[in-house]
Design brief:
Radius of gyration: 22 Å
Number of domains: 1
Largest sheet: 4 strands, antiparallel
CATH topology: Alpha-Beta Plaits
Mean pLDDT: 80
Strand order of the largest sheet: 4-5-3-6
Pfam family, one: DUF6204
CATH architecture: 2-Layer Sandwich
Distance between the termini: 39 Å
InterPro entries: DUF6204 (IPR045778)
Number of helices: 3
């Protein structure tokens, strides 16, 4: 008599190569990650605002720059009035998602997040511009490539 055991879990969905190298799974939903850089210039800062930014300048040094979901601000106000926000934005879309529009949408999300952060603190700014670059996905291993070829 065979001992009772749990049934084996179903295998994970096979990756299906999609347009632009993105992989989508059987559900038709794929996610891509973008590094969004938002650049701008502080404008008409009051003396207390400027003093506050200068006091926190060590936390926002360019050597501490990184792309995060919450965003990362870098500036050197003592040298010049420019700043850079760095965001990590994940775009999730279905099979019918326009892949060409995703970087534009990710850049717009980053720009609106940066503008909201600045407005929340009352910092004046101008010349906001954003760009988004796709984070390359790890290449498929040999087993995954074989499965993708088989369909």
């Amino acid at each position: 008599m065979r001992p009772l055991c749990r049934p084996a879990p179903p295998p994970p969905p096979a990756a299906i190569p999609g347009p632009g190298g993105a992989r989508r799974y059987d559900g038709g939903v794929s996610s891509r990650t973008y590094r969004v850089t938002v650049r701008g210039m502080f404008d008409q800062l009051t003396e207390p605002q400027r003093a506050e930014l200068l006091a926190a300048a060590a936390e926002h040094d360019v050597f501490r720059a990184e792309f995060t979901e919450a965003g990362n601000l870098t500036y050197d106000l003592a040298a010049r009035p420019f700043f850079t926000f760095r965001y990590l934005v994940t775009a999730t879309g279905g099979a019918d998602t326009d892949l060409a529009a995703e970087p534009v949408s990710a850049a717009a999300d980053g720009a609106s997040a940066a503008a909201a952060w600045l407005a929340e603190r009352g910092y004046g700014h101008k010349n906001l511009r954003a760009s988004a670059d796709g984070v390359p996905e790890a290449p498929l291993g040999a087993r995954a490539r074989r499965q993708a070829r088989r369909g």
